[in-house]
Amino acid sequence: MKIVVIGGTGRIGSQVVTALREQGHEAVAAAPSTGVNTLTGEGLAEVLQGADVVADVAGSPTFVPEEVLDFFTRSTTNVLAAEQAAGVPRHVALSIVGTRRQPENSYFQAKVAQEDLVQAAPVEWTIVHATQFFEFLPTLADSQTVDGVVRVPPVAFQPMASSDVAAAVVDAVLHGPANTDVEVGGPERFRYDELLRAELTEAGDPRDVVTDPDARYWGALVDDHSLVPEGDHVVLGSTTLAAWKKAQAEQAA
Questions:
Q1: Measured by CB atoms within 10 angstroms of the end CB, which terminus of the chain is less buried, N or C?
Q2: φ, ψ (nearest 5 deg) of residue 60
Q3: What global pTM score does this model have?
Q4: How far apart, in whole angstroms, are the C-alpha atoms of residue 8 and residue 57?
Q5: 209 Cβ contact partners less than 8 Å away, ≥ 6 residues apart
Q6: pLDDT tens digit string along 48-105?
């Protein structure tokens, strides 16, 4: 099969492209650096010729609310229109667990707008909702820091390795299910505040981690259902946090 991976040079996209090629498929990385710009439409018609599936794993380059919404709506509209013109029958999109459970999170609401466009399109679709990546735990600690103190809500949290996210996208590309949302997460469930406290202690970070039920996650109040996979189609990755850390240490050695 020919699979065009939108955002195919990024953290997830590059892994998706590699995995698909290893399985004998023609995987094409579509990104500005490869001559494809989904915001302007440049290169879309050409790259989608003969494609069997489009996998859109691109992320917004900005977190400014208006710009994020513009990115996902304009990019997705252009991709879907080009798909229809080229006769591509299937679309897979990567989203985030909890997008419809956090109305105060502007990034998530932009992803909801993207999901709505995909679901309304006249092609078969699968949307993969992934939890947060292990790679971003330090960034999360920084995002929860207020006046030098890391304030974190005591809610369920189920991060995962980016390699497992890529594997879930590949599985959706090759096997479906059709016209369905899939939620994926890591094999272990933590409490968010306890995990960040342990991570900062291990890293020798002197910041205090304070458990605060009113602390927000990227601007939104969250509970035990907000950041973990739920629903009829839940898939758990196989990589534990300890195994991921061991692999990262071996790669750095």
A1: C
A2: -70, 140
A3: 0.95
A4: 7
A5: 141, 149, 150, 152, 193, 196, 197, 200
A6: 999 999 999 999 998 899 999 999 999 999 999 999 999 999 999 999 999 999 889 9
